[in-house]
Amino acid sequence: MQRTKGIQVSPNSPTLAAAIDQAKEEQAKRELEAQQVARNQAIHNIQKRITEAEANKQEEVARQEIERLNQEKEQIRQQAERQRFAQRATSSETLSRFQPYLAPGRRILRGNNCRWGGMDIHNNPVSYGDMLECERLKMRKICGSR
Q1: Is residue 61 situated within a structural domain?
Q2: Which of 70, 85, 95, 99 is 20 to 30 A away from residue 54, measured at CA?
Q3: What is the pLDDT of residues 35-84, one digit of tens each?
């Protein structure tokens, strides 16, 4: 073996085999540390994904709960509206207002001017079509002529 210029070898220096073994050990330590870092990173990434998945699941559950509550709220609103309409339709004011149209034996709306009365007399209430045609369903006082 030749000595390299500028490098001094002392008698206590490790042998080549020992230096190779030491280099292998250091390489193994570096690889082990790199594997440990990679393993820690993978564990961190998995925990992060699990946390995100749980957060997404909780968001979805919260969104579904909000949607369910909104549906219940809408159903309650619709039911209250139906009750309000039913009360209004059966109120004494509404019944007295439409009594001329609902009472049998009255004249029906006929003619070009759609005035109350006409030539035809029936024992049935005024037809819905006649009321629409003569604009009698608008909320205004229903007495006499238009």
Answers
A1: yes
A2: 70
A3: 999 999 999 999 999 999 999 999 999 999 999 999 999 999 999 999 99
Instruction: Give residue 72's Cα distance to chain centre.
Output: 13
Same domain, 109 and 63: no
The CA distances from residue 51 to 38, 45, 59, 101, 128, in Å, are: 20, 10, 12, 68, 63
pTM for this predicted structure: 0.43
Expressed as residue numbers, the domain containing 112 is 92-146
Q: Which two tokens stand for residue 65?
A: 């709960």
Task: Tell me the longest C-alpha to C-alpha distance in the chain.
Answer: 139
Cα 67 to Cα 69: distance, rounded to the nearest angstrom: 5
Three-state SS for 23?
helix
